[in-house]
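Course assignment 3, question 2. Fill in each field.
Student: A.L.
Task: Predict the tertiary structure for the chain below.
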Amino acid sequence: MSVDLYLEAADRKNTRLSYASALRHFEVEWGGFLPATSEAVARYLAAYGGELANSTLRQRLAALARWHQDQGFQDPTKSPLVRQVLKGIRAVHTQRQRQAKPLALSGLETVDEWLAEQICAAEAQGQPAALLRHRRDRALILLGFWRGFRSDELARLEVQNVDLIPGQGLRCYLPRSKGDREMTGRSFRCPSLSRLCPVSAYAAWIETAGLTHGPVFRRIGPTGQLAEDSLHPGSLIPLLRKLFAAAGLADADRYSSHSLRRGFAGWAHSTGWDLKELMEYVGWRDLKSAMRYMDVAEQGLAERFERGL
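Answer field:
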């Protein structure tokens, strides 16, 4: 194999695409030149400081830094000038970080109950396409919640990499994931549960779809035809919002694919999981990442204050 092939494999596809988009924005839309000077990068930041989110600006800087490093040029993004301009943008254009609404356990119960009703109706009325779709969605939501999976992890699950363990649960393997910086692959376990069980939902979906290999969660055509490729990670947000709205959850447009992960983290934290144990289970590598997903429970907050008084 060629060196270029291995270099390409070293980066996640989404990272390569986002970096390429950032470079196009710098060169084509803004009219910058590569290699760039620190003064040019500072002017670029100033041009979009009030328009783009801080996270987007940091991503653009990362792309510029990577290009200069790869080409053997001095990295202009590390200069004091660029750092000060970025700091000033954060001070002037203060932005409240938007987070997806976590899916609470009660919400998960509501959605699962609605899906169970839809599955029964599809079976009774002989609607195979609807049965496929509802069983897929039920497996996706329950597995996504109880495993705390990201949208791209759900999209990259392969049938041949998931093992059902009778009476215990399932074990799945992902060759690559966001937290796997060494690219060694990770195995995830998920237990069987007395209710809201992700394992039984997964088994029912696989049996109904007749899947033996390839992506677990796939697109389904209007007449029930299964696609060969997986759901795109970006399609999960509209899919979940549509489901949540149909099930009767309020503010369905405030949910995203991160709602499953945040919901599980909040549930685990409230039920006494040790933080280290939770980080290991979900796959967080640092405390800062974990804390972004956990909210302090408002219920009982006054009681804790009063006990201290």
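Instructor remarks: The CA atoms of residues 193 and 199 lie 8 Å apart. The mean pLDDT is 86.
Grade: pending
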